[in-house]
Amino acid sequence: MSWWDIAEGSGYDSFGKKALRVDLVQCAFCGELGKFKTHARLENTNTSGKTLHYDTLKCEQCGNNTFVFWAIGSGGLQSFHQLPWPTRTTRWPDHWPDDVGRYWLQATRSIEAANWDAAALMARSAVQLTLRHAQAEGSNLYTEINDLGKKGILPPVMVEWAHEVRVLGNGNAHPMPGEVGTTAADAQAVVEYLNMLLKVVFDLPHQIEKHRARKITKP
User: Fold this and answer.
1) What is the pLDDT of residue 217?
2) Where is the DUF4145 domain (predicted)?
């Protein structure tokens, strides 16, 4: 794994353009989203033709600078890292369903704020909603995961992993008086599972679709 692998496998839709999606960049100082002017730009291209970009952006709202390292992968996805990074996550990839994205966003922000119960509940809900977008059948979360495993949509390791994540159990979604709160480790575990599930169900099919489209349009 190297920095040349950025945007290979996951990222945001670049809509066929070769420019940074500034609309996704948030100022870490004032919180404004997408209000930047390019202050400086460098780039480096390797022998395969892939270009790494190093942009310094100036926020039009507060005047502070943000450094953004970004690239477009072979599948047409764009990914970036910025410094400083905003303390709050603001959005999700365009190819995710909006309802899944909302739950994921709330789970991620709850992790950032150390709200473990909320993070676990939102992540668990996002997991189940993702499974249902994939047409999973079953009477509970585990049977829906097993159903997608039997259909070949989820690899066996994802099915096995689900049974190792305690918070995916039904008890967490139906609390009883006197129960102990969710631990940081359990909350982080279910969010990690959610993030991998989103890659398998949404990100990888999207990348394959973009790759096939590029092959069809190639002269």
Assistant:
1) 61
2) 114-193
Residues of the chain with pLDDT under 70: 1, 87-90, 169-176, 178, 180, 215-219
Note the pTM of the prediction, 2 decimals. Answer: 0.62
Give CA separation, 112 vs 82, 89, 125, 194, in Å: 17, 8, 18, 16
Is 161 domain-assigned? yes
The CA R_g of the chain, rounded to the nearest whole Å, is: 19
Nearest to 109 by CA among 99, 125, 95, 123: 123
Among 83, 108, 139, the domain-final residue is 83
Dist CA 26 CA 86 (whole Å): 7
pLDDT value for 176: 63
Q: Any idea what the CATH number is for the domain that residue 113 is in?
A: 1.20.120
Length of the chain: 219
Domain count, the chain: 2
For the stretch 57-88, pLDDT in tens is: 999 989 999 999 999 998 888 999 999 987 66
Clarify whether residues 78 and 27 are in a common domain: yes
**Mean pLDDT, rounded, of the chain:** 88
Residues 35 and 125 in one domain: no
Domain boundaries, position 123: 98-216
